[in-house]
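Progress note, sequence design subtask.
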């Protein structure tokens, strides 16, 4: 039997703690006494100490099976830091080691100097490693991130399902499985697969009271995130994106806007990935933009915000990733951006996978949709998902509780749901039941002839989405149950039967509504146009002042007013109030050259106007956009720089001349200057060039090609006008 006083003394000696946290002490005692254990403890709860301390006090070497190579070094460095001057005490064994390093690990293991050995499940299967481990005394096996065992978990890894067979081959010792996220179904899978059905289960509360949960509509999310980070300067945070491409783009966008950020994803070189992670841990950068490859086991206690730019694939992923915020018990904000377009993308990714895997994936995704769209307490929803009840009606630290929606007495609606389920000879999924009540004659409903049921359309006054909401709340109240084994079939619980027999008041809420799409494809002009429409043309007084300034400048420079700034640019200025030349570039029709050439007086006027009238600018900053040049545009620019004939450039790109000219005009519109003099001089008479050029300089009210052709007459060809217009824009108007 382990001596409690001796264990506390060792904990103080190695880790510097005076007391255990939560259920740590009981777990440590159980493992030291040789018992198998299953530990379900939220991120930040101190899972690592539950096996690190026993490893340091027990005879032999503890084998810690961990899924991510990048984290092993951090864990080993941490242990070596606790036990200073003894690098032999902990090692990792994986594919990143060279022969010399492997020999060093082998020597320390055989000499009995190593107390903790971290291995990846793939490394554990190698015959030479199995042979090595057979030669040493093993104190116990610790399976970290044990949810990877279950195909119902959010990070299923087939290699994890071989662990028990490997343990039997190497030599049986106590097993401790640890995870921060496991539904009852996943927990059952883990215990069964590891062959430790009799293990003692230690389950901590999933509640993280210091975390604030919020779901926002994914409308102009990039701007919203930049605003949030700028409003929280110096705070560490993680932004999660689904794709590697988006990670790279978003990290670049943050840096352009003065936020120190680095990307992290599995496609980066291992050294770059490790360096970026270390820079984040050492606070050389404030934000890491990452795929889900980042964060598992990262020990940074002061992450103040976790932002999901893309919705996660499962509630388990969401819970674990948000759990990286506020591990020190202090402030932790969890903001997720949601649109149904993202859900459709995730569903598309599932295509081609085995049918059973698709079914599981869709069910996990349906839970995410229900969570995102719900108006109920998010803490209550999360804890219920993991089999834990949260009793307070208002947690005070989620968006739905801080800004609650009106509630209604839903006893009649719940009774109708229960009556429908009881009337069916078989069990069905939530969406199917909702469609029956709403009266939606889908192909599936017709195939079961459920459109002929007495209760078909009994709730047609409400949408199927409304009925999904009622059913979800029935699950939370334990009136209904969802059978995970059969992909989410709904049944009535004894509590539900009792409710139907004697209905009582149920305070239910309707779900929130979200826009259908995200903002991945939005460009600056679309966003600006939307802002202009929303603002009704902006500040009329400022617009008048800007037009007066433009008129004055056009007289001084002897240029048409539109050449300086077109009307849409002035209108944007009255909405965005740019006060620097850099901010001015975010207005419609204002490229870098135009902003530098003409912008100083305009931003000075706007800055003075803002100060004198005490105006709060929309976000007090303007989001800068990364310049976007596709490979095709870059090739066109390079061809022109090499003075190639435009016909040759068009042929190389598979374009006709009209399409090429449109591409060139688009390039110039973004502020890029092109020199087409070599081509113009070879193909257009000098007199014609001069006439068209003078028209745009002296007469034109805009840069319209159609207006120019009408004014110049039939002697001038459209291609000539377009080419000289580009020359004029590059030399004078940009």
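Output:
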């Amino acid at each position: 039997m382990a001596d409690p006083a001796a264990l506390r003394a060792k904990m103080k000696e190695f880790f510097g703690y005076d007391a255990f946290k939560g259920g740590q002490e009981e777990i440590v005692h159980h493992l030291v006494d040789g018992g198998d254990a299953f530990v379900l403890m939220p991120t930040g709860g101190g899972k690592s100490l539950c096996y690190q301390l026993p490893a340091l006090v027990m005879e032999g070497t503890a084998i810690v099976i961990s899924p991510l190579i990048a984290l092993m070094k951090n864990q080993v460095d941490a242990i070596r830091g606790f036990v200073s001057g003894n690098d032999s005490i902990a090692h990792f064994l994986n594919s990143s080691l060279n022969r010399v390093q492997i020999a060093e690990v082998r020597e320390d293991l055989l000499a009995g100097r190593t107390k903790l050995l971290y291995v990846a499940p793939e490394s554990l299967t190698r015959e030479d490693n199995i042979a090595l481990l057979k030669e040493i005394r093993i104190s116990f096996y610790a399976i970290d991130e044990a949810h990877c065992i279950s195909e119902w978990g959010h990070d299923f890894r087939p290699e994890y399902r071989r662990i028990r067979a490997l343990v039997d081959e190497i030599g049986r010792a106590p097993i401790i499985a640890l995870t921060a996220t496991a539904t009852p179904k996943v927990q059952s899978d883990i215990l069964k697969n590891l062959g430790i059905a009799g293990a003692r289960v230690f389950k901590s509360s999933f509640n993280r009271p210091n975390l604030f949960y919020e779901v926002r509509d994914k409308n102009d999310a990039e701007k919203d995130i930049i605003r949030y980070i700028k409003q929280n300067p110096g705070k560490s945070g993680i932004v999660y994106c689904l794709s590697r491409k988006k990670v790279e783009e978003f990290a670049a966008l943050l840096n352009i806007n003065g936020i120190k950020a680095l990307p992290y994803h599995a496609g980066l070189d291992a050294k770059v990935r490790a360096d970026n992670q270390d820079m984040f841990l050492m606070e050389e950068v404030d934000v890491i933009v990452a795929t889900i490859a980042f964060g598992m086991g990262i020990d940074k206690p002061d992450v103040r915000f976790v932002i999901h730019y893309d919705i996660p694939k499962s509630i388990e992923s969401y819970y674990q990733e948000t759990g990286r915020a506020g591990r020190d018990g202090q402030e932790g904000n969890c903001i997720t951006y949601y649109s149904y377009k993202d859900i459709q993308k995730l569903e598309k990714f599932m295509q081609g996978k085995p049918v059973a895997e698709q079914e599981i994936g869709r069910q996990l995704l349906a839970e995410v949709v229900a969570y995102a769209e719900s108006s109920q307490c998010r803490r209550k929803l999360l804890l219920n998902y993991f089999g834990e009840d949260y009793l307070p009606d208002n947690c005070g630290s989620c968006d739905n509780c801080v800004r609650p929606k009106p509630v209604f007495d839903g006893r009649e609606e719940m009774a109708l749901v229960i009556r429908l389920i009881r009337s069916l000879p078989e069990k069905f999924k939530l969406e199917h039941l909702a469609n029956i009540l709403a009266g939606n004659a889908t192909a599936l409903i017709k195939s079961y002839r459920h459109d002929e049921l007495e209760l078909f359309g009994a709730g047609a006054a409400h949408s199927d989405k409304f009925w999904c909401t009622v059913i979800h709340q029935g699950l939370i109240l334990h009136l209904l149950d969802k059978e995970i084994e059969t992909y989410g079939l709904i049944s009535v619980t004894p509590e539900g039967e009792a409710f139907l027999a004697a209905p009582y008041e149920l305070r239910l809420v309707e779900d929130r509504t979200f826009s259908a799409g995200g903002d991945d494809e939005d460009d600056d002009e679309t966003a600006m146009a939307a802002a202009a429409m929303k603002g009704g043309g902006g500040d009329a007084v400022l617009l008048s002042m800007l037009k007066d300034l433009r008129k004055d400048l056009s007289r001084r420079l002897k240029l048409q007013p539109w050449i300086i700034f077109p009307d849409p640019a002035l209108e944007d200025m009255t909405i965005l109030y740019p006060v620097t030349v850099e901010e001015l570039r975010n207005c419609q029709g204002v490229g870098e050259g135009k902003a530098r050439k003409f912008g100083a007086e305009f931003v000075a006027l706007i800055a003075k106007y803002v100060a004198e009238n005490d105006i709060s600018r929309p976000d007090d900053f303007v989001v800068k956009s990364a310049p976007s040049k596709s490979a095709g545009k870059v090739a066109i620019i390079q061809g022109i720089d090499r003075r190639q004939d435009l016909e040759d450039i068009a042929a190389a790109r598979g374009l006709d001349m009209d399409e090429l000219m449109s591409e060139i005009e688009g390039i110039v519109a973004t502020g890029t200057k092109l020199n087409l003099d070599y081509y113009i001089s070879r193909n257009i008479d000098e007199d014609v060039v001069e006439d068209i050029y003078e028209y745009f300089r002296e007469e034109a009210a805009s840069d319209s090609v159609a207006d120019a052709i009408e004014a110049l007459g039939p002697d001038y060809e459209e291609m000539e006008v377009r080419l000289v217009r580009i020359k004029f824009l590059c030399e004078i108007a940009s």
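Residues 519-537 have pLDDT under 50 and may be disordered. Work on this subtask will continue into the next period as scheduled.
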